[in-house]
Amino acid sequence: MTIELKTPAEIDVMREAGRVVARCLEACRAASAPGVTLKELDTAAHDVMRSHDATPAFLDYHPHFAPSPYPGVICASVNDAVVHAIPGSYRLAEGDLVSVDIGAFVDGWCGDAAISYVVGPAEAADPADLALIDTTERALYAGIAAARPGKTLGDIGAAVAGVARPAGYGMLADHGGHGVGRAMHEPPHVANEGRPGKGLKLRPGLVIAIEPMLHAGGSDDYRHDPDGWTLRTADGSRAAHVEHTIAITPDGPRILTEA
Q1: Could you tell me the pTM of the whole model?
Q2: Contacts within 8 Å (CB) and 24+ apart, 89-92
């Protein structure tokens, strides 16, 4: 496993890729309303990328497990879909819980991030959905806070799980974050559970994506859709997914995928 540490200048370029990703996510959230299709969200994100001369990281991506190249610019997962759902003709409804995951390249460097939100006014949302999203976000930021030089990947995983598990939520089995750089997925794997002080020691220049994926029903189990991409909670409960790409710096974690 070869891990490439990035220079400060390279991290600055990755910050530009991350800024594009953040703007794409904002565009998807703003476009989400009852009756809007997931494909329309995909188009909104692609338009933002084009306007910034960015290249979609997901489009035509073909990992070994997938039956075909990915056909979208975004992953748009609704309700019990956790991750990797293809943006198609489904029309959003008020109260849908949507998770949007986006990756983009700028000058050969990648940014990757995800958000979850409920369609429609907050006062009409199911409080259980809002609590799920809030916990997933708090788990993400706990993981980010643990990402400091001298700490370990185990510290990150322990921080994420330390928020998610006491709240009673499951976490998508066999999945987690990853290194990011010249490719969207690089080593190391960044698990959402871990033992403090164990695993790879964090060093300045390491760039990783931290991405909690929580299940409301409490189980970690999932199932595949026939499309070979979409992962759903096995019990049909709702899921939330949030993600940031961050750089380990001497001063602590630097979030690269903020607006």
Answers
A1: 0.98
A2: 89/37, 89/38, 89/39, 90/37, 90/38, 91/34, 91/35, 91/36, 91/37, 92/32, 92/33, 92/34, 92/35, 92/36, 92/37, 92/38, 92/119
pLDDT digits (tens, 9 = 90+) for 89-108: 999 999 999 999 999 999 99
What is the distance between the alpha carbons of residues 150 and 162, in angstroms, rounded to a whole number? 20
- Do 227 and 84 contact (CB within 8 A), yes or no? no
**Per-residue burial over 96-111, b = 16 or more CB atoms within 10 Å of its CB, e = otherwise:** bbbbbbbbbbbeebbb
Is residue 161 classed as helix, strand or coil in its secondary structure? helix
Cα-Cα-Cα-Cα torsion 9, 12, 16, 17, nearest 10 degrees, comes to 80
Give CA–CA dist 55/101, Å, rounded: 15
Q: How far apart are the first and last CA of the chain?
A: 32
pLDDT the model gives residue 65:
87
Cross-strand partners of 109: 106
d(CA 30, CA 57): 22
How many angstroms separate the Cα of 257 from the Cα of each of 15, 82, 141? 7, 21, 13
**224 DSSP β-pair partners:** 231
DSSP element (H, E) containing 171: strand 170-171
Q: Cα–Cα distance between 28 and 19 in angstroms, integer?
A: 14
- Note the pLDDT of residue 1: 72
- The dihedrals phi and psi of 160, each to the nearest 5 degrees, come to -60, -50
